[in-house]
Design goal:
The chain is an all-alpha fold. It has 9 helices and no strands.
Length: 245
């Protein structure tokens, strides 16, 4: 991690608050909050912390552009998925296009055109793996997660190649990110199952239909996997050296 510039961090925090407000507004259009009201400013503060972490890791420059796009996009999608257990195409596809543009711009600016190829290959590979998992067990992995996978792979491929410009690093980081996401998803599922046993689930907001009804069994609990995929990807993008084997 490069030296942290205090002015850059302040700028990232302020920008993060604005980005978080935008994420909350966009998410609210697809999944209005319901039940227990969210703590005021939670989304905005989360975005500010995420953007500050990105700037602390990459500084302010072209190398920070892809992870900044990833942070805002994945935060917005995670909010919707947590509220409604769905990942709208109207957010996923524009976020994927913005991610590809960010990767291309950052790769050209840093004179690493190979990172573009690595990012696209990782996106296609990640998508193929999750599509195969969906086909084998459609009830275990939603198709929204499959459509999200190329976006995740783009950022993983770019981060891996930017850290270690070798194909083995791209494969390694992508696999490690998926394994990390599965562990995070398992923890989230168990936590949600325990909470459901202690209190009833809040009713979805207007226009928000959950993909599946809650399951009473502890190990059969249905929960959104998108936030776990997003968390695993962001951790991997921020700390690729710690995960590339």
């Amino acid at each position: 991690m490069r030296g942290v510039n205090a002015a850059n961090l302040v700028l990232a925090l302020v920008g993060g608050l604005a980005a978080g407000r935008l994420a909350a507004v966009v998410a609210g259009r697809f999944a209005p909050p319901s039940g227990v009201r969210r703590p005021i400013g939670l989304i905005e503060v989360s975005a500010a912390v995420l953007l500050a972490a990105v700037v602390a890791r990459f500084g302010l420059g072209w190398s920070a552009v892809p992870p900044l796009v990833a942070a805002v996009s994945l935060l917005t999608l995670s909010i919707v998925d947590l509220r409604c257990a769905r990942l709208p195409d109207a957010i996923v596809f524009p976020a994927s296009a913005a991610s590809l543009a960010a990767v291309v711009a950052a790769s050209i600016a840093s004179a690493r055109p190979g990172a573009i190829v690595a990012a696209v290959a990782a996106g296609l590979g990640y998508g193929a793996v999750l599509w195969a998992a969906h086909e084998m067990r459609p009830g275990g992995l939603g198709f929204g997660d499959v459509k999200l996978a190329p976006l995740l792979g783009l950022h993983l491929g770019w981060a891996a190649y930017s850290s270690h410009p070798e194909w083995w690093a791209v494969v390694s980081l992508t696999v490690q990110a998926l394994l990390l996401s599965c562990l995070i998803g398992l923890a989230m599922g168990l936590a949600q199952a325990v909470l459901r046993r202690r209190r009833p689930e809040p009713r979805p907001g207007p226009g928000c239909e959950r993909a599946s009804p809650p399951s009473p069994g502890l190990l059969q609990t249905v929960f959104p996997f998108g936030p776990a995929l997003a968390a695993g990807t962001m951790i991997s993008v921020l700390f690729p050296e710690a995960l590339i084997l």
